[in-house]
Write a structure and sequence with these properties.
This protein has 95 residues and is of the alpha+beta class. It is 27% helix and 40% strand. The chain has one domain: Ubiquitin-like (UB roll) (Roll).
Length: 95
């Protein structure tokens, strides 16, 4: 399933445990509102609280996968979530 390697970095959430780096062959996740499957995902996970962290380069790779899926499905790759908030609070967004 995945290879695990202990990191010297403590968990940013609980601070008690060390993060364990691992590579997951096929990681299924939601990313920016789109379900994606990431091959060979590089993830650091705290074995104490379960917090997962990802490097910036890994997230850029996920972004590319998401954009490819959106292009294949002909849906916008960037969903604007601010407009419903404006509507909820009665503000009128400027164009």
């Amino acid at each position: 399933m995945s290879a695990t390697k202990r990191s010297s970095i403590k968990c940013p959430s609980c601070g008690k445990w060390r993060m364990h780096r691992r590579v997951i062959k096929l990681y299924k996740t939601g990313f920016e509102g789109v379900q994606i499957e990431v091959p060979n995902a590089k993830i650091s996970k705290c074995l104490g609280c379960g917090e997962e962290t990802y490097s910036a380069s890994e997230l850029k790779r996920w972004q590319k996968i998401k954009n490819e899926i959106c292009e294949q499905l002909s849906i916008p790759s960037r969903v604007h979530r601010i407009e419903p908030t404006y509507t909820y609070y009665g503000f009128i967004p400027r164009n």
